[in-house]
Design brief:
With 84 residues, this protein is mainly beta. It is built from no helices and 5 strands. The chain has a domain of 39 residues. The strands form 2 sheets. A 3-stranded antiparallel beta sheet has the order 3-4-5, with no helix packed on it. The protein is flat and about 45 Å long.
């Protein structure tokens, strides 16, 4: 479950306020237990274009470009992974 808000117009900045929202952990044994997903995206800042290059049902973090700009490094399960 998530809350989202979008203007659907890339040239407009909108503001949303959510109130009276309560999130509770799933009950033990609940068949709707949540799964964490992480997404590695490349964002072209000048145009705000986004492209997901890797999605996985796990935590990964700290992406950094290699000095040559041809590969990304990121931390997954305590190991450094490299992705072209």
């Amino acid at each position: 479950m998530g809350l989202a808000f979008a203007s659907h117009d890339k040239d407009v900045v909108e503001k949303a306020v959510f109130s009276n929202v309560e999130l509770n952990p799933a009950a033990p044994g609940c068949r709707f237990a949540s799964t964490l997903y992480s997404t590695l995206e490349i964002v072209t800042v000048a145009s705000t274009d986004r492209r997901a290059i890797y999605v996985a049902p796990e935590r990964f973090e700290a992406p950094n470009w290699m000095p040559d700009g041809k590969s990304l490094l990121f931390n997954r399960n305590g190991r450094i992974e490299k992705m072209p």
